[in-house]
Amino acid sequence: WPYCEKRCSYCNFNKYIPRGVEEAAMRSCLVTEAQTLLRLSGVRRVESVFFGGGTPSLASPRTVAAVLEAVAQATCLPADSEVTLEVNPTSAPGSRLAAFGAAGVNRLSIGLQSLDDTELRLLGRTHSASDALRTLAEARHLFPGRVSVDLMLGLPAQQVGPWLGQLRELLRHCDDHISLYQLSLERGTTLFTQVQQNALPAPDPEIAAEMYQEGRAVLREAGFRQYEVSNFARNGALSTHNWTYWQCGQYLGVGPGAHGRFMPQGAGGYIREARIQTLEPDNWMKEVMLCGHGTRKRVPLGELELLEEVLAMGLRTDVGITHQHWQQFEPQLTLWDVFGASTEVKVLREQGFLLLDHRGLRCSWEGLAVLDSLLLTLLPQLQEAWQQRTPSPVPGG
C-alpha cells in the first residue's frame, strides 16, 4: 500500500501523498496482481502475508479482506497463517483495528519509533507518544501476544541514557516483539538535508553503537531472544514472515514498488528471479489492467548470487546457517569446504565472533553486532571457493 498521510523526515521508501485515493481501483489491481503472480509462481501454499507500505492501516479493512480472499482462492492459505499489518498510531483507532482483525489480520507491527514527542516531531511523525501507547494498548487487547513495535536509535543529538529510559518505559507497555532500528540518513530526505546544512548535528555512530549494545542487553535481561540483528522476541513470538526472508525462502511482492524472489513456472526452468514492481501507483495500475501484473524489473539470480544471499541473510539470525539448510541450496560444496580451511575465518572464530561446528555457521552474541564487517571476510571467501570448486579443463586434454 504505497500511500501515506505525510512523508516522514527520514523516509526514502516508495510512498506517495495522494490528493485522493481511488481505493476500489487499487483494491482490484492488488487482487489481480496477487492472482497473476501466484499463478506464475506455481505456489501451492502460502505461509504468511504481510501488508506493508506506505501506511497500509490507511487502506480499508475491505481491501485487506479482498486480497486475503484472492490468495485463499488461488492457493492453500492455512487458517493459522501469519497475517501482519503495519500500523501507524494515528491511522489506527481501536474500532479500526478490530475491523482489520475481522478481515483476517492476526498480527500488528506498530511504527512507534520513539516515546519522546520532540523526537517524533523531528522524525515528522503524525502521532505523539501518548497516541502510540494508546494504540499499543488497544492492539494488545485485540491481538494479545501478536503485536510488534519499532523503536529507532541513533537520531541526531540523541543520548544513550534518555534513549535507554524510553526502551525501559516501552518494556512496561509492550507485547512480545520489539525491533530496534538505527536511523540511516538517506539522500533526498528532509533529515539528510538538515544534517547537510548543519541545521542538525550528524548522528554519532559511536553513540548509536553504544545504544544498540546497551539496548540488546536490556532486552536480553527482560527475557527477549535476539533472533535477528534488529529483532527481539519472547514467548516464541518471532515474525514467521520475516524469518522466510532470512532463510532465503521464496516470496511474492504485490503492489507498487514491491520486491519478490521466486521461480516462475514454465519460463525455461529452475532459476529464481528477483523482481521489482513498477514504483509509481498510477503507472503500476495501468500495467496491471493491461498485463495482469506490473513487474518492471526481472533479474535471474545465478547460483553464486543465491548462495551469497543465503550467507548474508542467514547470518543475520541467531541460528545462522545449518549444514542442512546450506545443502538445500548447494549440495556439493559444504560449509566446511568453503570456510573450514580459511585462515581469516579461523581468526574470526578465535576472536569469538563466529562459530563453525556440527550445527553449521553462525555469529556469536558479539558477532551479530558487527555482522557487516564479518561479511567483508566471508563473502570473498565464498566467491573464491566457488571459483575453485571444479578443476579447469586441461587445454587440448
UniProtKB/TrEMBL annotation:
Organism whose genome encodes this protein: Diceros bicornis minor
Superkingdom classification of source: Eukaryota
One Gene Ontology MF term: coproporphyrinogen oxidase activity
GO biological process: porphyrin-containing compound biosynthetic process
Gene Ontology cellular component list: mitochondrion
Places the protein is found: Mitochondrion
Family membership noted in the UniProt record: Belongs to the anaerobic coproporphyrinogen-III oxidase family. HemW subfamily.
Function comment: May be a heme chaperone, appears to bind heme. Homologous bacterial proteins do not have oxygen-independent coproporphyrinogen-III oxidase activity. Binds 1 [4Fe-4S] cluster. The cluster is coordinated with 3 cysteines and an exchangeable S-adenosyl-L-methionine.
Keywords assigned: 4Fe-4S, Chaperone, Heme, Iron, Iron-sulfur, Metal-binding, Mitochondrion, S-adenosyl-L-methionine, Transit peptide
A Pfam family recorded for this sequence: HemN_C
Protein name: Radical S-adenosyl methionine domain-containing protein
SMART domains, per the entry: Elp3
Annotated CDD domains: Radical_SAM (cd01335)
Principal subcellular localization: mitochondrion
Stretches assigned to the Radical SAM core domain: 1-225
